[in-house]
Amino acid sequence: MVYQVRRLLVSPLFQEWKAKNPEAYLTHIFYMTEMEPQVGYYDQILDKITTFTMADEITRNPEQQVFKKEDTIRPLLINDVEQSTMRIIEKARTFQEEKYKKENVVKEIILLQNLDIGQVYNVTFITDSFKILNMKICAKRGDVLQHEFRSLMDLGKKTE
Question: Are 70 and 98 spatial neighbours (Cβ–Cβ below 8 Å)?
């Protein structure tokens, strides 16, 4: 995933966009099985995020409103990411096999971002029984900092 940022930085499309959006900063790298990775940049002045789809040809997606729980969108400090995406996926799969081995994973979603607990790979596995295993894995050390396992049907419900 880090490779995608380096690839984006040297692309003419990005360089032209960045010249017009100098205040925007890297906030996340998103990957989901069967999709091309996306790299997101946040513009605090506009309070919007622009994503770049990292296919064979890089494309810029339209600016979007930001969905945020906190007041601040933290920058992703790519040089502080020491764990490779493959290592994190292996760690997440091992964790799932050890803790929830009866669950069959059908979709993997990985979001590299900077949260209040630090820079993490926010890994979500969706199972064929409509359950979600979400793991926050440290981008520096590779250890599972938090995890949650629940039904997909509970997503819209308020928790007490």
Answer: no
Residue 91, phi then psi, degrees to nearest 5: -60, -45
Tell me how crowded residue 14 is: count the other CB atoms within 10 A of its CB: 20
Q: For the segment 125-156, what is each residue's pLDDT rounded down to a tens digit?
A: 999 999 999 999 999 999 999 999 999 887 66
Whose structure tokens read 């940022």? Answer: 5
104-131-120 Cα angle (round to 5): 90
The model carries a pTM of 0.90
Q: Which residues of the chain carry a pLDDT beneath 50? A: 160
4: three-class secondary structure by DSSP: helix
Q: What is the DSSP letter of 130?
A: S
Among candidate residues 8, 35, 54, 5, the one with its CA nearest the CA of residue 110 = 35
